[in-house]
Amino acid sequence: MELYFTRLHWNTHTFPVAATADGLCYVGAWDEPEDLFDDWSRKHFPRADRIASDTALAPYTEQLLAYLNQQSTTLSFPLAPVGTPFQLEVWNALRAVPYGQTATYSDIAECLFRPNATRAIGTAIGKNRLLLAIPCHRIIGKKGDLLGYHGGLNMKRTLLALEQRL
């Protein structure tokens, strides 16, 4: 198996991005240290050949840049998320939150018919490593407050503001 990776450059930030033949599997936080991606890839793809390739990732990075530059509100490439069945279920529910809108952890719990699982859902959301593509930045607290985000609250705030402007 081959794991292709590159860094997406946007404004003053860079994001690690990776994909397999099945689809995009990793979009990290802006300015994320390389060792976080290295650790993740070794854990989830221990036998993969890691190949740096801007060309192989161009279909993904072009759409991600169009999203970040407010030229597109949708991403149409295949995803290959790596997680447990529960995490995949939660992440799939996140993809249903429309561009420019937010939902609460409780909303996701209700959507999954697990009204008492908000804490587990929050933990699953925190494990999402397909930032932007699986829009966990759209999930907020019950009172409208911004809660934890792998990319940090500044990144979350920026992404939410970006979506509100279009």
TrEMBL record:
Q: Does the keyword DNA damage apply?
A: yes
Q: Which residues form the Methylated-DNA-[protein]-cysteine S-methyltransferase DNA binding domain?
A: 85-164
Q: Which Gene3D superfamilies match?
A: Methylated DNA-protein cysteine methyltransferase domain, Winged helix-like DNA-binding domain superfamily/Winged helix DNA-binding domain
Query: Locate the Methylguanine DNA methyltransferase ribonuclease-like domain: which residues?
Result: 6-81
Reaction(s) catalysed by this chain's protein: a 4-O-methyl-thymidine in DNA + L-cysteinyl-[protein] = a thymidine in DNA + S-methyl-L-cysteinyl-[protein]; a 6-O-methyl-2'-deoxyguanosine in DNA + L-cysteinyl-[protein] = S-methyl-L-cysteinyl-[protein] + a 2'-deoxyguanosine in DNA
What keywords are annotated for this sequence in UniProt? DNA damage, DNA repair, Methyltransferase, Transferase
What's the protein here called? Answer: Methylated-DNA--[protein]-cysteine S-methyltransferase
Q: Which organism is it from?
A: Exiguobacterium acetylicum
